Amino acid sequence: MSVMEFPDVLPYRAWIPYNYSKPIIFQATAASQLITFFICAYIHVGFDTTYIGMMMCVSVQVCVLEHRLGKIIWNIKKLISNDKTLDINDVQNACNTLIAEWIDHHNGLLRINTMENTPFTYSLIILTLLGLWRPINWRGCKSLLYNTYTCFIIFNNIFFITTEFIDIVLSSKTVDDFTQGLAKMLGVVAATGKIFGVIINRNLILEAIDVLNLKPFKVSDDHEEDILKKYVRLSKAWFPYDYTKKNIFLTTAVHQLYTFFIDTWIHVAFDTLYVGSMLCISSHVSVLEYRLGKTVFDMNKINDLVVNTDVVNNACNILIAQWINHHNEVLRYSREVHEIFSGAIFLNYCLSSTQICITACNLANLSASSNEFKSEMMFFIALVMQIFMITMAAHQVILKFEDLNFSAYSTDWTNLNARTKKSLVFIILQTLKPVVFSLGYFVNLSLETFEQVSQF
User: Fold this and answer.
1) DSSP letters of 218-257?
2) DSSP count for the chain of H helices, then E strands
3) pTM exceeding the 0.90 threshold for the entire prediction
4) What is the DSSP annotation of 182-213?
5) Shortest CA distance to 304 belongs to which of 316, 321, 291?
6) Domain ranges of the chain
7) What number of other Cβ atoms are within 10 A of residue 332's Cβ?
8) pLDDT tens digit at each of 456 positions of the chain
9) Chain Cα centroid distance, residue 341
10) Which residues cross the membrane (predicted)?
11) 105 has which bridge partners?
């Protein structure tokens, strides 16, 4: 189904204040809706990862505080034990200085509750690409163009919200229409709130970043550097070079992020392509059901209008042959689609099942309040949803083929002549054969398979 075939159906229902029936205007309107949703999705990603990055950086500073508190006590003990001739006032002053530095660090951490760090920086890069974070060194024409881009993003969101809201008010006739439109609109409203949250608080974020590059937040020894690396390290990996230098570290980190980003979209593209192919098969099976009913109706009509038995039989044979040919083509297409995807789906199924088991074991050994648990849980849900999408798509096709047999039996076949009834019985027997999508000769894609993985 293409945009050109149905120029009156937008990707998302909305009230549009102009005539969009012309192909060019329709495509521009549809593209605007899709771009808005795409940008809103990444605004959620950029904003949420920025917040999570800030919370991670607060955790870094709390760990540094713990280290420095222990270091202060150790320094005080060392000061007293090394030089017992020191005046008590000198010792007291030294202790007060060390404790004051720690308290200043603690108070500063409570005041800002944020930190610039590697994950935080990458989140700002996403916001920059989305038009919400103009680079600091951009002036003149660059600044003007970027601000124009920001205004376009804001206008696009507000326009989408307005048209969705008007459509909900004017066109919602059922509860389902209302809830579906409201769900989409609320997602864009939330993204718009995040847009204004970033833009309005830009100076505060910049101020917090500047403060955190100074003492007492700046790393002061190797142990604190190790604490920092523990939180900012993206993925454990062995590298044949020293990546402790800033530029090399950033390059390596960007490479890891880029790889994960590309792999994520490969999963999205491949899985949606497979699911889309299954949906196409389901749609053609539904068309088969309709054509079977229409074929039987036409054959009954021929029986009523034509007296010559040979003419009736020939006409019915042609109609039945056309339907059988369509049915065989749908079966052939489903087999071809399965053969195309079966290898990659089988590999993905086995690996994802293994990942689910490993992740479940990791979750059992983690505290529910820890950041690691939340991260592992999100990964676990993503793995489960990935397998569910694949198995559910195949299961729907299987159900549609089963419905085809019921539809064949439910047609008005009782008034047909004996020869045509025999042909219809043959069709019913053919539709009784189960359609199975097997992987590696021992795994059948269905909801039962998904349940087995979940139980395991």
Assistant:
1) S--SHHHHHHHHHHH--S----SS---SHHHHHHHHHHHH
2) 12, 2
3) no
4) HHHHHHHHHHHHHHHHHHHTHHHHHHHHHHHT
5) 316
6) 23-233, 265-455
7) 10
8) 343 344 457 888 888 888 888 888 888 888 888 888 888 887 887 787 777 766 776 777 777 777 767 776 676 666 666 655 555 555 566 666 666 665 665 565 554 443 334 445 666 777 888 888 888 888 889 889 999 999 998 998 898 889 888 988 888 888 877 887 787 788 888 888 888 888 888 887 777 666 656 665 666 666 656 666 665 555 566 667 776 676 777 777 777 767 767 777 777 777 777 887 888 888 888 888 888 888 888 877 777 776 677 777 787 778 888 888 888 888 888 888 777 777 777 887 788 788 888 888 888 888 887 777 877 888 888 888 888 888 888 888 888 888 877 777 777 777 677 777 777 777 777 777 777 777 766 677 777 777 766 665
9) 21
10) 24-45, 144-163, 377-398, 423-443
11) none
Residue type, 14: A
* Dist. CA 222–CA 230, nearest whole Å: 12
Closest Cα to residue 16, out of 184, 166, 188?
166
Q: What angle, 0 to 180 degrees and rounded to 10, lies between the N-to-C axes of helices 246-305 and 418-432?
A: 160
Peptide bond into 23 cis (omega under 30): no
DSSP annotation of 439: E
